[in-house]
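Lab channel / #folding
Pinned by the channel admin:
"Please post every new chain as: sequence first, then the structure tokens as a reply. Keep commentary short and put observations after the output so the thread stays searchable."

First post following the new format, from NK:
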Amino acid sequence: MESTGPGTGAGGTREAEGAVEAEGAGRGRGAGEAATARSRRPVAVALMLGTGLVAIDSTIVATAVPQIVGDLGGFALFSWLFSGYLLAVTVTLPVYGKLSDTFGRKPVLVGGVILFLVGSLLCATAWNMAALIAFRVVQGLGGGALQGTVQTIAADLYPLKERPKIQAKLSTVWATSAVAGPAVGGLLAAYADWRWIFLINLPIGGVALWLVVRHLHEPARPRPATRPRIDWAGALAVFATGALLLTALVRGGVAWPWLSAPSLGLLGATALLACLTVVIERRAAEPVIPGWVWRRRTIASVNLALGAMGLLMVAPTVFVPTYAQSVLGLSPTAAGFVLSVMTLSWPLSAALADRVYNRIGFRRTAITGMTGALLALAAFPLIPFPGAAWQPALLMLLLGGALGLFQLPLIVGVQSTVGWSERGTTTASVLFSRQVGQSVGAALFGAVANSALASRLADAPVEGLPGDLDGVSRALADPDAPTAAVTDYLRRAVDTATDHVFTGAAMAAGLALLVLVFVTPRRFPLLAEHEDSTPAPRD
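Reply from TO:
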């Protein structure tokens, strides 16, 4: 999990819009289109392996935390195993995007894979929790290169008509790997050793690295008149701003209250650094985040829409498993299945998205998808208490299909509006916006859930109950749980908190719709394939 483009003017027709878009897709034969399926296949395999590495690594550690803490100690720090990795991936995306546009995709991807594998090897040798967290950050630095560059190379290699196929494959790999991560992590921790969670990356990443080195050959480009200048000051400013912002969002309300000195200090420092970053980037000859990313209406609107999608994605991915276990009383495995059905419909919808946007255009397809997502999210609070497992599962199935129809046309569309020299930066800005949206959503909806829960627990029939969602979930899972009446009250409280979260997620979907309707241009200014020289693999 792209001249004249799709969309029509006030008096246009759907047929005309589809015809224009098909013309933009088929006009000319760039290097990506000329590459044969045979020559692209090994590179596509490498891209899928790279996607799988990043996806599984974000979830595989979760089920092995008890074994890791039991071996290394540092229980108070273990949450940084996830936060540190997330920070490193997110804040480096813009930097790697600019580097890939300046020096080519291959060196960035090769460097990212090597850094990821070195981080994995170091994680397997960690001697305490602090060392493991530091090595996870090294992994994240490589993961940022993998995540952004894989998407960019996919757009480089495949012409507009074929991009939905590779994007659907990448979406399928991501979904499968993310769902399989917890199970694989649990099995390795239980029957082998938690260190194998990181060592398993080495052979997979080694194959991906060999395929990239052997089969991805970027064409020689004219030497620039002046030597490319790396905006180190801008890169450092972007990194520091993103790190402070994400630290404030990830730790706020968890490690300290939102209105405490640490939260306010981090947010204030973030605002100051953001202003400094803008000043640095305006003065830089080749900025890491060029101003055109936000001045171009198409790119800016896609960034905003996918940021809103990142926001709403927190509701299903974070709160549905808790809802399924605490309210429906399902086992962790069954609760995972309720969520995993979303990963079945998402790739399928993405694979069929081109048939829709070739008829009605990128923007209208995305509007259709987000409208479906809004309806699914808004329907969740209507599930009666206690409900049945098939009800949220059905909504997750519909939500996955809707989001596949929303996300893929926007990514394919925005990548097709820029040439090779701008595609890495554009793709990185889209992924960065989505990642930041997820971080904001986790902080925002976590506060919403805990606030709703605290309001319900204020009138609880007994005293001494936990006051946050995690504590209530643990209390309900305790075999020595309170009386049936108290248990029922707690489950209703979790149900109410989850309903509030999904209402907020529906509002985020509404925000995305407003952006698509009022900000996104009706026509994506597609580049003709022959106007862009894209790298192609060769045997």
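NK: The chain has a mean pLDDT of 81.
TO: also worth noting, Residues 35-218 form a domain with the Growth Hormone; Chain: A; fold (CATH 1.20.1250.20).
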